[in-house]
Amino acid sequence: MKAILAVNLEEALTVGLAAALDRRGLGARLRSVPSPKAAEALREGSYDLVVIDLAEQAVPPAGLLPALAEVSPDTCLVVLAGSAVVQAPDRPAMFDGIEVLERALPPEDLSIRIAAALQRGVKGHLENVGLAAFIQLLAIEKESCTLEVRSAGRTGTVRFVRGDLWDAQVGAKQGDEAAIEIFGWETVDVDMSGVGQQARRTITASLTYLLIEAMRRRDELVRDQPAPQTAARGEGGGDRQPSKQVTAGGHGSAGAVVGALIRELEGFIAVCLVEAATGRTVEARTMRADLDLELASAFSRESLHQVRELIGALRLSSAMEDLLFTFSDEVHLIRPSANGFFVYLVADRAQTGYPQMRAALHKLWPAFEADALSRGLPRQAEGPGAAISPVTRDR
Length: 395
Hints:
This protein has a six-stranded antiparallel beta sheet, with helices on one face. The protein has a five-stranded parallel beta sheet with strand order 2-1-3-4-5, with helices on both faces. It is elongated, with a radius of gyration of 27 Å. It has helices spanning 11-23, 38-44, 64-71, 83-87, 107-119, 131-140, 176-183, 207-224, 252-264, 293-314, 354-374; strands at 2-7, 28-33, 49-53, 76-81, 99-102, 124-130, 145-151, 154-161, 164-170, 173-174, 187-193, 268-275, 281-286, 323-326, 330-336, 341-348. A hairpin with a 2-residue loop joins strand 8 and strand 9 (164-170). The chain folds into three domains: 2-119, Rossmann fold (3-Layer(aba) Sandwich); 124-204, no CATH class; 252-374, 2-Layer Sandwich (Beta-Lactamase), CATH 3.30.450. Helices cover 35% and strands 25% of the residues. It is α+β, with helices and mostly antiparallel strands.
């Protein structure tokens, strides 16, 4: 049975909260105390959730937050505040990481929201898990929790608040750099508990960018390691060729521009920067291990060739800008450049669309073209029917 400490709550709301929990099969033991007794009550017992009605106050009563941090850091704290306090842009930093609800909501709605906050509490232990997939699941499920992550003698902490990555710490690092380091650990053990009390948010970048950047750096470390002295032999005595890794890049200005694109575009899934003449992948990042970017690049080249042939056959005077493919869950966009390359971009349709993808590319297009010029890529013939060599594939 869940234990809830109700601080300064009206009797009707306390009764409504108990009824809402019972309807959801979350029977609870409620203890109601006035504000001056809150800290003392916390030190006397263990609670899964503390709900406090601030009434017209601006901050919780003195001693409540220190008592939570000292004796019950994993306890979920729900604050009922006036709308002015809830919406204030300069809301006290102590509210960061705390569920704040407007006390003017009807009692039934408040009780439902409080019950949902209690249900979000998660605890557990996981061993030998892939962290990236687990982290994304927490974000999708809107979880609030603290993860203690261990790998090869290293320990780091990651905090989520309602599905948002809030804070990360490892050694002396905190924030984005700490998250990137932790997300780069391949196999980890995880202890998961409540969110605890976090004074301020230290994460500034999107979760997608941090995961992609962690994979990029991990792949760079692998590439920089010296090759083995003896090559593995395949059947028939031939050398076994390593599979080509295109899920991460990061060298030169192309890596910086692609990184900026990931930060800019909500719902990013994959991007590939390709030399149009040769089909060589210059830079590639993907969130999906099953997405073959080399195959996508090859088909993109062929699609561009066919569309340009169509433009020439129809004698159109219009210049081709983008090729767009929309699917039930994804949007795929191909944009060619006169400077000898094209970009293949994939995004989650539920989070973004063509206008957002086009705007993100437009913002970074000069940087993409500058990188192409610095590489000395052959300039494509201009005009609506400009040719691009078709792709030949083994069948």
